[in-house]
Amino acid sequence: MALSISSDINAVMDRYNKQTAANSRADSLEKSLKGDLSNASDEELMNVCKSFEAYLLEQVLTDVKEAIVPKQEKENPYLSMFGDKLYEEYSKMIADSGDLGIAQKLFESMKRNTPGIKPTEQ
Question: Structural domain boundaries of the chain?
């Protein structure tokens, strides 16, 4: 009985830690997007857009993993932590490659629709 309660507590704590980290990244990203971007260079604006794309991809990859991979009762917390870091790094790599184009479209939209940001000449 004690072992079951201990594993339940560990699972709850692991979920709480993951959610807290995700909320922290989301809050940081939201602050960047809501900040004054009118004086931002194209590079800074693109970095914010890539950060958003990476965050979005990380959420998608995490949800897909949870839907496909069966939940193990005694999941190793270290494996879980490193798995989360792996998905975070995969997301950054995909966003940096520009293959999906979400960041580029967001960048173009922000340049077009945000007052004070001059559109790039094409």
Answer: 2-32+41-113
pLDDT of 122 reads 45
CB 49 within 8 A of CB 103: yes
Start-to-end CA span in the chain (Å): 67
The contacts of residue 32 (CB under 8 Å, 6+ apart) are 48, 51
Q: pLDDT tens digits for 53-71?
A: 999 999 998 888 878 877 6
CA dihedral 85, 90, 91, 94 (to 10 degrees): 160
Measured in whole angstroms, how far is the alpha carbon of residue 26 from the centre of its chain? Answer: 7
How much is the pTM?
Answer: 0.64
Contact at 8 Å (CB) between 55 and 26? yes
Q: How far apart are CA 8 and CA 26, in angstroms?
A: 27
Task: For tokens 């998905």, name the residue.
Answer: 87
